[in-house]
Amino acid sequence: MTKKNLILLYGVLFSMVLSLFSCSSDDSSSSEDIPLSADIFQSTVGKKVAFQGLTNSATSWAWDFGDGTTSSEKNPVHVYSDGGYYTAKLTATSADGGSITKEVNLALDITPYVLLTGGATAESGKTWRISSGSSANDYFAYANAELTPFPGAPYPLPAGIFGSGLGMGEIYEDEFTFYFDGNYSHDVKADGAAFSGYLYQYVTTGGAGIVNGGGVDFGLCTGVFTPESGATFTYVESDNFETSSAIESSGTVSFNGVSTLSFSGTEFIGLLDFERRVIIQNITDKSMRLVMFLAASQDAIGVNTNAVILTFEAVE
């Protein structure tokens, strides 16, 4: 047999062996069939997510992207209309009807507004309250451009000061809820009162609205408040905020390029006083720090003398 014929014979034999091996591997009755399994891999750019269904023995794929849309592709690409938190699910089904479901949590294009409201999928909104734990950045300030610490108050404010120090621990219970669509709700809890300015209560209610005057030395108290039905809020990411100031010679103080919150009607967050707009100094998924203004001088009714800078925590 020539060398050429020998090579040809080896080639035929190799093809036959390969064919036999292939037939054996595809035999559905084999005891070594791979069981149904599934996993998810994804890559994200902004609000665009490329999903890959990593499955074995699956014949169909059903995706639920967590925003009300679905797909039957094995490896779909989906663009979410809003940034936020989503849970995407893959259900893989085999030829015999067996199925398995896997899910993955996504945090897409998380803006400060999403951090504030919980995003488009947070049907109950996101709820905040004043943190009793306080922080190193919480303090009582003058209403000037530098927000200079007020020398008559502890700096920083110790944890739980409004409770153990001033006997107004109920202010840590009040809850403020922001919804992605701009709606706002407020729960004053059992006492029916809100953290408030002492002078504000005297000017607006003659003092009759004061429930707890434990913070009078700092111009603070709690006062009767009925939350507004159907309230809304406005968030501005970069605002040129101007408000009154009894400290500045101009009678006003400005903060440029700051994030602000304002509210409809009589609503507010944190502190009820003449100025109901607040500055967001910092916000994360779990906490935010606000600057709230207070008018505490009878010589300048309704004009800000101080700022109260407090940390709020997200209610789980």
TrEMBL record:
The keyword Iron-sulfur does not apply. Residues 55-104 form the PKD domain. The keyword Signal applies. It comes from the Bacteria. Residues 1-24 form the signal peptide. CDD domains: PKD. Keywords: Signal. Gene3D superfamilies: Immunoglobulins. PROSITE patterns: PKD, PROKAR_LIPOPROTEIN. This is PKD domain-containing protein. It comes from Arenibacter echinorum. The lineage of its organism: Bacteria, Pseudomonadati, Bacteroidota, Flavobacteriia, Flavobacteriales.
